[in-house]
Design brief:
The protein is built from five helices and six strands. It is an alpha/beta fold. The chain has one domain: 3-Layer(aba) Sandwich (Leucine Aminopeptidase, subunit E, domain 1), CATH 3.40.220. Helix 3 packs parallel to helix 4 and helix 4 crosses helix 5. The structure holds ligand AR6. Pfam families: Macro. It comes from Filimonas zeae. This is Macro domain-containing protein.
Length: 171
């Protein structure tokens, strides 16, 4: 069965998928943007698990991903990935952003996740250009799901109008 790719405008903390993805930072200790919203809505259990991961492996590198349960959220898991900070495209930001999507999907597969929702990683506080980020997100997700069976649906959740319109155009 081919993976369904869908688009929703709204708040990712309300999405009932097996996993939602968080645009975290390498400390895994929370922050603003979607990271703040997920920890606020999900409650302290998520932060406690992030602390345990930190103690074990010292945080999460850019482009990598870790998984926790989802506390009070309707999802079962939160996959925390660390997007690159945009620096004029000089520091392999594009490859690192693609790694975020790929590593999140691999972790999802490893944990039996069928449906997964992504925010627009790096396009807020980390200032990755939204058009470039949308193209990378779609290309990477399509590439991964075309060569790996097991994920039935990938939902892109856009919070701001600009991202929503870009994804509408690309899809
Ligand atoms: N649901 C879905 N998307 C959201 C939500 C939400 N509730 N809130 C914001 N967005 P950002 P980054 C969108 O800044 O650029 C944090 O402090 C937002 O419109 O959350 O990867 C972390 O701790 C934007 O399109 O993440 C890091 O330090 C997208 O989410 C840093 O920010 C990503 O914006 C990560 O920066």
């Amino acid at each position: 069965m081919p993976t369904r790719i869908s688009l929703i405008k709204g708040d990712i903390t309300r999405i009932q998928a097996d996993a939602i993805v968080n645009a975290a930072n390498s400390s895994l200790l929370g922050g603003g943007g979607v990271d703040g919203a997920i920890h606020r809505a999900g409650g302290p259990a998520i932060l406690e698990e992030c602390r345990q991961i930190r103690n074990r492996q010292g945080g999460c590198a850019t482009g990598e991903a870790v998984i926790t349960t989802a506390g009070k959220l309707p999802a079962r898991f939160v996959i925390h990935t660390v997007g690159p900070v945009w620096n004029k495209g000089n520091n392999t930001e594009e490859a690192l952003l693609a790694s975020c999507y790929r590593n999140s999907l691999q972790l999802a597969l490893d944990n039996g996740v069928n449906t997964i929702a992504f925010p627009n990683i790096s396009t807020g506080i980390y200032h990755f250009p939204k058009d470039k980020a949308a193209a990378i997100a779609l290309e990477t997700v399509r590439g991964f799901t075309n060569t790996n069976a097991g994920i039935s649906e990938v939902i892109f959740v856009c919070f701001d109008d600009e991202n929503f319109q870009l994804y509408q155009k690309e899809l």
